[in-house]
Amino acid sequence: MIPRRALLKGGACALVALGSTPRFLVRAAGAATGTGKVLVAVFQRGAVDGLSMVVPYGDPACAAARTSIAIKPPARGDGERAIDLDGFFALHPALAPLAPLWSERTLAVVHACGSPDPTRSHFDAQDYMESGTPGVKSTPDGWLGRSLQARPSGTSPFRAVAIGPALPRALRGAPGGLAMSSIERFDIPGAPDTGARQGFEKLYAASARSDRLPAPTAPDPVRATGKETFDALRMLQAADASRIAPANAATYPSAPFGQAMRQIAQLIRANIGVEIAFAEMDGWDTHVAQGAERGQLAARLGELAAALAAFTHDLGDRMADVVVLTMSEFGRTVAENGNGGTDHGHATAMLVLGGGVRGGQVYGRWPGLGRERLYEGRDLAVTTDFRTLFAEIVTHHLGIRETSRVFPGWPATGPALGVMR
After folding, report:
1. Domains of the chain
2. Strands 177-180 and 107-114, sheet pairing
3. Which positions ≥6 away from 120 have C-beta within 8 Å?
4. Per-residue pLDDT tens for 179-210?
């Protein structure tokens, strides 16, 4: 005898082991087209130092406050230095793989961007950025989830996909929001006697045998889950996304973020109806030994740039319908600390790349780094509310006109950035 509650719980555990949640997989199996716009959100967890990622070398106060971690300003022919963008800002040299995108005007930067909330707590700041409601802890869903709610209902079970062990805060409330550790774990290859398939068969058979379940006079969620799971697995096998090799000689880093971007590209190229994808990369909390042109931060930036560049090469012309947005909960202090690192700050830099982006520009009003211009006397001030940037992307790229549905309680005052065509 298997109690209904235990059976439901056991079924959920079995599905988590495969990285799936069948309730989000069953609608219109095989009906996806995958020809629409796609937004890929990348969260740099830990608070990236935007002043080193996109260096304001034209502001002398930046180098003056950073005796050991300042990035050397651009110099012609010196690849060890920052890469000039516009005579005032420059990319960290580890971001060199992104420089061609800047030249092609498909990469833009939004600097001095962040949350109006003053918190320096990673947990709270990430929660506010993912919910899209700074300072409000009671918001039940995320801004990406609400973005899908505001779009015409799609048929694909893969409308919202996160590569990771759990659905991120930003995708809560998404119709069909799905988290997977690896798309390969969805692919059940070979004969029907594989261990995964046997496990599902046993679960389904147990649900049919249990006399604690009511007679099937109405649709039964446990029995339906078993059938729907098999249907979803068949659909995923048919898509064969895990066997799609990178195109255009794209080479992804082997680290987790690089592989996450590789899998997102596979899902997009499989044409199974992805509208929003989410990936994250940690390691940005550089309190100690941050480094300058080389070191801890440079290594993370190099991995980020290599993965994003590979993603754009892999998708090729498909990037016309794809926008990648990077975000981080806040920035770092202007001055370095006594451990050769930086502490929790306020504003940071965010990257936007892909089709429809007015690239080759740094957007946002630069507040300056003179002491009298710093936030609370120590941080880069926020001059662009992150919702201004996010709202422009969901409007122009995802076609959502009523941004009040995505960012409730936000007055949306002030001019648009103009980062999107």
Report:
1. 1-30+193-239 (no CATH), 33-187+248-405 (3.40.720)
2. unpaired
3. 330, 344, 345
4. 999 988 764 334 344 444 555 445 444 544 54
